[in-house]
Design brief:
Largest sheet: 5 strands, antiparallel
CATH class of the largest domain: Mainly Beta
Distance between the termini: 36 Å
Shape: elongated
Radius of gyration: 19 Å
Number of domains: 2
Number of strands: 10
CATH superfamily of the largest domain: Regulatory protein AraC
Helix content: 25-40%
Order of helices and strands: EEEEEEEEEEHHHHHH
CATH architecture of the largest domain: Sandwich
Oligomer: single chain
Number of helices: 6
CATH topology of the largest domain: Jelly Rolls
Low-confidence stretches: none
């Protein structure tokens, strides 16, 4: 069924990364808890709790959701004629748009009430002025290397990035033994434990 605007809550208990692709809809992400990385060009922008990020239709991006992350996602059809922002970036939610997002997140209102809320929110979206500011955390993620030298990121964040890197390497054809040797000093038991904790693999 075709819809102009929709809302959903994305709950990721484990590490989840999407492949890099062009978006088919305009998307607003609002992080409730956890951490999201949105890749645009060569930079991955860190989205922390309380932050909102706008991704226009046709944006080439990939998203990484850290474990225990909850995000509200508002998607708008590319066929909507409203003058939505064409630039990606962080957006400041005004008092009204924040209240609307919060109400949608409660999931207690009826479908008709939700539709009315989203109609008002759609108008609010046209007033957003997205900006790609490189926060301190974004800078730390951009500086991270798999050897972890001189990184200001927490150990937990670095482990998540290492597991993501390991998966990328194996998907690109590297043997598991090579990846474990490179990233985990050959200790497969540690990698198995991290796969269980961060990816939910049994």
């Amino acid at each position: 069924m075709h819809y102009a605007i929709s809302h959903q809550i994305l709950q990721h208990d484990f590490l989840h990364s999407t492949s890099r692709r062009k978006l088919l809809k305009h998307t607003l992400l609002h992080v409730k808890q956890g951490l999201v990385l949105a890749k645009l060009g060569k930079l991955e922008y860190a989205l922390e709790p309380g932050e909102s990020f706008w991704l226009p239709f046709d944006t080439l991006t990939s998203l990484t959701f850290f474990p225990n992350t909850s995000v509200q996602s508002v998607e708008v059809s590319c066929r909507v004629s409203a003058p939505l922002p064409k630039q990606a970036g962080y957006v400041e939610l005004g008092e009204l748009s924040r209240a609307l997002i919060n109400r949608l997140g409660e999931e207690t209102s009826s479908v008709s009430a939700q539709n009315e809320i989203m109609a008002v929110l759609k108008t609010e979206l046209t007033m957003f002025k997205p900006a790609l500011n490189e926060s301190a955390l974004t800078h730390q993620f951009s500086q991270w290397r798999w050897d972890g030298l001189d990184s200001a990121l927490s150990n937990e964040q670095q482990l998540v990035l290492k597991v993501r890197e390991a998966n990328k390497m194996m998907l690109s054809g590297k043997k598991r033994e090579q990846v474990v040797e490179l990233l985990f000093a050959g200790n497969d038991a540690i990698f198995v434990q991290l796969e269980h904790l961060l990816l939910g693999k049994s």
